[in-house]
Specification:
Keywords: Coiled coil
Protein name: CCDC146 isoform 2
Number of domains: 2
Helix content: over 70%
Region (Disordered): 1-22
Number of strands: 0
Radius of gyration: 47 Å
Strand content: under 5%
Distance between the termini: 150 Å
Organism: Pan troglodytes
Biased composition (Acidic residues): 1-17
Length: 170
């Protein structure tokens, strides 16, 4: 019986302790929006609140240090993300300007007189035609030269064989 009474007494004491403790609420940051890259983290509401909880004995020192480290990592990640966002926005602005310039140049090219472009196209076609013909002539000349050299070598071989054949019968 004593065990059951002590258990209920312990439960009542725990409930009383829970009621005595004030609930912990997050405090909304009061820092004005500024360039957070230069903010001293020890002066942020989060760090101040962690110090207050530690001073009241509600937060052990190791837990406070771990939370500060996590906060610092998160702060660095936010700063990196913000810098990346600014860079990406600048890139987007620059690329948009480039696209507009290219569209303008494309529109100017589309508005160029048709007669001139067809005349230029005809001249290009004619030039390509002549270049192709020239290349074909050069290739035929190379093959003919190769064939001529082969025939000359063959003639020399035949003449040597003929000389060998006529000498023994003389």
């Amino acid at each position: 019986m004593e065990d059951s009474s002590t258990d209920t007494e312990k439960e009542e004491e725990e409930e009383k302790d829970e009621k005595d403790q004030e609930p912990i609420y997050a405090i909304v940051p009061t820092i004005n929006i500024q360039d957070e890259r230069f903010v001293d983290l020890s002066e942020t509401p989060a760090f101040i609140f962690l110090h207050e909880l530690h001073a009241m004995g509600k937060l052990p020192g190791t837990r406070m240090a771990a939370l500060k480290a996590k906060y610092t990592l998160l702060h660095d990640a936010v700063m990196s993300t913000q810098e990346s966002e600014v860079q990406l926005l600048q890139n987007a602005k620059r690329f948009t300007e480039q696209i507009q310039q290219q569209q303008f140049h494309l529109q100017q090219a589309d508005n160029f007189p048709e007669a001139f472009s067809t005349e230029v196209s005809k001249m290009r076609e004619q030039l390509l035609k002549y270049q192709n013909e020239y290349n074909a002539v050069k290739e035929r000349e190379f093959h003919n030269q190769y064939r001529l050299n082969s025939l000359k070598e063959e003639k020399i071989i035949i003449v040597k064989e003929f000389e060998k054949i006529t000498k023994p019968g003389v």
